[in-house]
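TA notes, week 10

Several of you asked for a full example with nothing omitted. So below is the full record: structure tokens for the whole chain, then the designed sequence directly under it. When grading your own attempts, check the secondary structure regions first.
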């Protein structure tokens, strides 16, 4: 049984996917995809010995050694240029995911789709996509075990950037697709964030030295949230 958030990641892979899952841990995602689609092939990358061994074990257990290659290494170092067409990276902070993509940029030329699931700070990935010729084409948010997970899908070309001139910063912060969908999970996530922000704003206002720049930024964010969930 695969978690809902990883099922959503999997749902954005095309049939016959040739992909790498970086930070694969137990390789549950590549196993799930390859069991469902007999033409899919994957590389499961892991930097740490424990999860690497778990991945090898799971792939053997499922009899998928012929189609899933488990490799040990840091980020995109485990893939060669032109080896995969899609990339999944899930369950880490957006800053770490962005730094993995940045460090392995030269391996991405033939990667037509990136599917990422950052645990926090998705804005860092939306920005990375814009600066690196990827176009955000879909977003989903799921709530599971009291956590909110955002899944971002970006393609190499073929679509226009989803941001508007007038509201770009707000769309970057909240997610241009998520904002439009206004799903239950989206509203619940941002209600919780708004509560945190109000607390942060109050404590800034009560400090001896008020950091005006910071205060402005947080008030701006709170405004965006309130507009989006009202
Ligand atoms: N992707 C799985 C998921 O979403 O359930 C596992 C997420 S787990 C929280 C993060 C995994 O990423 C860990 O197994 C960790 O060892 C691995 N990891 C962290 N940094 C990495 C890197 N630079 N390269 C490869 N794997 C990395």
């Amino acid at each position: 049984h695969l978690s809902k958030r990883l099922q959503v990641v999997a749902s954005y892979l095309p049939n016959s996917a040739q992909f790498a899952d970086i930070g694969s841990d137990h390789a549950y995602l590549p196993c799930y995809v390859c069991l469902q689609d007999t033409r899919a092939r994957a590389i499961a990358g892991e930097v740490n010995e424990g999860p690497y061994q778990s991945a090898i074990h799971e792939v053997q257990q499922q009899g998928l050694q012929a189609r899933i290659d488990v490799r040990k290494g840091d980020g995109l170092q485990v893939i060669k240029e032109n080896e995969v067409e899609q990339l999944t990276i899930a369950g880490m902070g957006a800053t770490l995911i962005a730094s993995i993509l940045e460090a392995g940029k030269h391996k991405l030329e033939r990667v037509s789709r990136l599917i990422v699931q950052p645990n926090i700070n998705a804005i860092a990935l939306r920005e990375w996509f814009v600066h690196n010729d990827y176009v955000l084409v879909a977003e989903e948010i799921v709530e599971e075990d009291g956590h909110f997970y955002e899944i971002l899908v970006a393609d190499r070309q073929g679509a226009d950037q989803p941001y508007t001139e007038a509201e770009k910063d707000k769309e970057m912060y909240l997610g241009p697709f998520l904002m439009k969908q206004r799903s239950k999970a989206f509203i619940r996530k941002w209600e919780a964030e708004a509560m945190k922000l109000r607390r942060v704003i109050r404590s800034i206002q009560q400090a001896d030295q008020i950091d005006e720049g910071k205060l402005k930024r947080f008030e701006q964010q709170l405004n965006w949230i309130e507009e989006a969930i009202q």
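The longest strand covers residues 135-144. Use that as a sanity check on your answer.
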